[in-house]
Amino acid sequence: MIAKTLRAGAALAASALIVAGCGGGGPKGAADTKISDGRIVLGVLNDQSGAYAQLSGRNSVKAVEMAIADFKAKYGDKAVTQNIGVETADHQNKPDVANTKAAEMYDRKAVDAIFDVPTSSAAEKVADVAKEKKRLYFNVSAATTTLTGTKCNKYTFHYAYDTYMLANGTGKTTTEQGKKNWYVVYPNYQFGQDMTKSFTAAVTAAGGSVVQSDAAPFPNTSGDYSTYLLKAPTLKPKPDVLGTMQAGAELVNLVKQYNEFKLRDQGIALAVGLMFLTDIHSLTPDALAGTTYTDAWYWNYDAENRAFADKFLAATGARPTFAHAANYSAATQYLEAVQAAGTDDPDALVKALEGKSVNDFFLRNGKIRAEDHRVVHDAYLAEVKPGSEVKEDWDYVKVLKTIPAAEAFRAPSADCHLSS
Amino acid sequence: MTGFLQNTFNGLVGGAFYALLALGLAVIFGMLRVVNFAHGAFYMLGAFGAYVLLAEAGLPFGYALFAVPLALAGIGMALERALIHRLTRLDPLYNFLLTFGLALILQDLVKWRYGVQSTPYATPPGLAGTVDFGLFTFPAYRVFVLGFAMVACLIVWLVLARTRIGVVVRAATERPDLTRALGIDVGRWITPVFGAGIALAAVAGVLAAPMRAVNPLMGADLIIVVFAVVVIGGLGSIFGSVAAAFAIGLVQAWGEAYASQWPIISQITVFVVMAAVLLWRPAGLFGREENPA
């Protein structure tokens, strides 16, 4: 009798488990969800061999893989699906390659959302593809504000940073600290020109002035910036700070020569438009000591950031740049949205994401703006430490100031019409 | 005045790099009739060699300046024997493709090992100061670069002008068939000359490490200008390539200084000058028309 009851009970419990497993139990189990082709595929499209391969590149693919693993571990069998994969491609910083690779990802590789995409011209092309295919696109590594301006569209979100954030953070704060006269040197292409415009606006608004701005050839095949460095102390009024908008190897060239010509000793400080942790690593902190720049995220800012950085170090052998952290965050927020909505339908997800307040170790006081799909969050004004103060590998900067999310990014642009 | 002198000095420093690279290219082209597309890659390897010696063996700049060119000359000679030599009898296009391929392979090997981000290399401590010339001051390291490059060019000139090897090289450069017909074994000098050309590129690379970004693409960016320099000077003309190198360095520096509102100018001047020279003197400023025979 007892045995019989036990058996019946066991059978009941077992069938309950099976039902639960099939989706009857959890709030968003597999049975009542609508995941297209039964799986989710995240696409990482970026530069894997060129100038931006280190600051993002394959390690961003790794970051997205970490996000997927953490998501699966968090939800276990309550996850909308355990079948989540990654597709990756190298766009070589070429807009046409980015265009075809993005179309191929959406059409043939069943990619639900594309992540990363550095290089503004390539990033804009992918925004067009996302719009045409009606699939999601989270841009992380491109700096252009057109993604939330003329190129904005319903399916495109711009994540980590942009030229406005960089210029506003560094230009405004440095001027307010008393360095009023600027000499700006920039590479003569879209990014450099945009940055210089934003910098000039930010410096002027803060009560400073740009004494002169010079466009350096791009690409600068001679690798020489001495003309500008020699000119800096002769300008009238003498500039307090040299603002450089060069990036990557050109930044390295310029900083090496800035030190060679000893401009810091002549009272001309250095401010950098865009710099990644990997740039400081290659120049060494001593070459950059005292330089200020705006950072979207810093790995050793607090324990939460550090926890991610430790996992990242174990997986890749390096500390994460803000691009790596932002790719992890974007992938996580996407998966969380799918989990909450119970579907990977892009239109439903856009609706769920718009206007949403989001917080994770990367997005502090984060919000996904409904007006232009700019993901706003706190940014940081950082200063490079001298080598003597560096106690740990990769811990090269101190955060001077947190720039609140509301001030860090520009107001939604009138150029952006999401519905059109 | 001070500004003009500084910019002129700078142009000469820029020209010094072009001169070392162009000299090697010109000598190699003269002897082998090979347009060495891998020259930029060897310049890059020179800089990386200095980095590796410092970072992994603790050997400072002074050692690198001699050890790296010697080592790369050895590698260059091995490549010449193993690969380039086999194609010299064929259409020059074959070696053109071969050296281009070599450049890509060398670049990607370095990328694979060291990544695309630049590697750090500080100015040698003894040369970190500035030199006061009375009218203007200048970073000591740049003065050193200019001096060293000029001495290197002078040594090459002395070897070519005053030694038996130099006579053979000059003869083989100007009239290869005639030189052979006179019973001179040109072949045995080909490999050492190739090695010497590579060594000059490596010297330029080591000199570049403290003042320029050390990354796998540094040579690929620079070599295009150097090709233009060699064409302006006259392919195979040793004196012409050096003269053109310093001239182009000056034109670039003055262009950047006095036409800074049009940055495009300093970017294209080299090629405008090249086009003008080719129209006026198709063989280059100091080149001689090849014998049609």
Brief account:
The complex is a heterodimer of chains A (420) and B (293). Chain A has 14 helices and 15 strands.
Architecture blueprint of SSEs:
The complex is a heterodimer of chains A (420) and B (293).
Chain A: H1 2-24, E1 40-46, H2 57-75, E2 84-90, H3 95-108, E3 113-116, H4 120-133, E4 136-139, E5 156-158, H5 163-176, E6 181-187, H6 190-205, E7 209-216, H7 226-231, E8 241-244, H8 248-260, E9 269-272, H9 277-283, H10 285-288, E10 292-295, H11 303-316, H12 322-341, H13 346-353, E11 357-358, E12 366-368, E13 375-376, E14 379-384, E15 397-403, H14 405-408
Parallel strand pairs in A: 1-2, 1-3, 3-4, 4-5, 6-7, 6-8, 8-9
Antiparallel strand pairs in A: 10-14, 11-12, 12-13, 14-15
Helix pairs in contact in A: 2-12, 3-4, 5-6, 12-13
Chain B: H1 2-32, H2 39-57, H3 61-87, H4 92-114, E1 130-132, E2 137-139, H5 140-162, H6 164-174, H7 176-181, H8 187-208, H9 218-233, H10 238-258, H11 263-280
Antiparallel strand pairs in B: 1-2
